[in-house]
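>> Question from a student workshop board

For tomorrow's exercise we were told to take the sequence and the ligand below, predict the bound structure, and bring the output to class. My setup keeps failing. Could a helper post the expected result so I can at least see what it should look like? The ligand is 5'-O-[(L-methionyl)-sulphamoyl]adenosine.
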Amino acid sequence: MSCKKAYITTPIYYVNDIAHIGHAYTTIIADTLARYSRMSGLDTFFLTGTDEHGQKIEHSALDRGKTPQEYADEIAATFKTLWDDFDISYDKFIRTTDADHKLGVQKAFLKMKENGDIYKDVYKGHYCISCETFFPKTQLVDDEFCPECGRSTTVVEEESYFFRLSEYQDRLLEWYESNPDCILPKSKRNEVIRFVEGGLDDLSITRTSFDWGVKLPAELNDPKHVMYVWLDALMNYLTALGYGTDESDIDYWPARVHLIGKDILRFHAIYWPAFLMSLDMPLPKHIAAHGWWTRDGAKMSKSKGNVVNPKEVADAYGLDNFRYFMLREVPFGGDGDFSQKALIDRINSDLGNDLGNLLNRLIGMSGKYFEGRVDSSKVSEYYQTELDEVNDSIAKLEPFVFEMQLHRYLEELWRPLSVANKAIDKYQPWAMMKEGREEEAMALNGLIATILAKVSIMLYPIMPQISPKISSALGFEISHDSWSRYITGDDVVDEFTIEKIPPLFPRIEETLLAHVEPEEKKPKDTKKSKKDEKAKESDEGIALIGIDQFFQTSLKIGTVVEAEEVAKSKKLLLLQVDIGEETPRQVVAGIKEWYSAESLVGTQVCVVANLKPAKLMGMKSEGMLLAAKDSSGLSLIRPETLKANGTDIG
Ligand code: MSP
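>> Workshop helper replied:
Here is what the output should look like for this input. Compare the format with yours to find the bug.
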């Protein structure tokens, strides 16, 4: 086995909230890379963990009446449990409250200071607690709001240590220039270059106005300062390998890849390499920034109540199916939209039809004609063309992995499946058997089994639970050895008797995400007398109406074709909604707190279409949108699948 090393990291997650689909996405990509590395023989170290210091966490803890440490312990445990439930193959789960991490950060601070990169001054400016970022006034929106998240910033004026980031501009630019793959996707590298070319300010790297953070090294005798949370957090990538304490794993450095989301690229692509240069440490090979997940077209947020819970999805649809969906659906770097329909389509079509059915066909053919036996010894005699085609595809896969092109990897991996399915249709084993061409039919079985063997191995990093089921039905285990035989080598599978296994991807009908809803309260008196227009009351005191009263309300499906904010209003959005009439309806809706105008365009809504027009802030509103609001926020009610505009609801 080669002793080349691969160090793969996820961001460390803030402990101010529980994990959502965005966190799961980063972690699953990193897990895929780690599994691929190990399988292909690299000595791999996979790191994940939690980012526990800073003002944001301190506030979240205090809001809940807990100490920051208690709160961090609680949330860090939920992340760890989730990753364990998801069988994430991390080698270390780091917490920034770990004692050796704190020591390592202090050592780094001293080293940067010794190198002349740290000086003390006064920081005056604005700070966004949510993004844990300083902003100069020139970058604020309306002189107050954070340009990243839109929240109000606080004015800070305090003594601070500074890192001479400005001194690193040239060296950073040189690094980007001479390492075209250092930031992936490459378009992001150009963005970073443009930003750095614009000039860099020195960076404030300590705070004095709160104390939930790593203290400065005792040698500096300056106890009122704590480290800036991003210096503390970024250092985790080194301290996890023992930097500054027990350095036995430090040889894994430099990282093969830091996986991150696009929102934290600046910290990783500018601050982090500059810190590393100051520490005289080599720079990472790749910093790979993925895009953002939305849900049904809308930005996810707790206040909107539309956050996708990864555990709920994995429990409802299968963990490996969820992994496959996320990696196949979105080109790396692009934004992705989570919808149940897209997920179900992928499972039924790619996994069920293309992969699952192929295995079923093999089980069926072997059972029917050869008592389950598969013998591949004559494959190349009859099907060399197909084998060549398959081996060509397999050989193209590896480069996609560390270029982060996992969607292309999967696309290419599906070609062998198509070769196999087409071969069965073309050569028709049933006809061969009728004509007594048994050897050819058996060789076809061998071809299909060999293709499935190769695909199961290459699919393993993405689907680590399902792939071994396929390989075990084919009589082998996925390992570095089978990789060497079937992937880098061109072996066909050994003779074996196929194991009948239940379908791996039973067809899923579109259903709601599995979540428990309170039992519907059925009104007891639903009998309607035409004369009786007066609403009755149910036992629970709810006004009861008859069905035709209900149908007096015209409810229709519509698509938002235009949306804009109503100037000077904190609540209102002005929407044009196509409900299948000649011109779109104008609807003024009080939903700005939960939805941005852009996120609504192109999405479907339910409209009360026969309300008397009303005027809101001087604008005519010709309808109302159905929505549900509880303590977690407001969600629009939408059709589960696309419906024609103007479709009646009822
Ligand atoms: N603690 C910092 C990272 C420090 S790394 C030295 C942090 N934490 S985070 O919990 O807010 O975010 C962690 C990761 O989740 C980021 O990579 C971020 O991009 C990702 N995501 C958070 N929401 C997301 C989506 N809606 N979609 C995709 N990923 C998103 O930032």
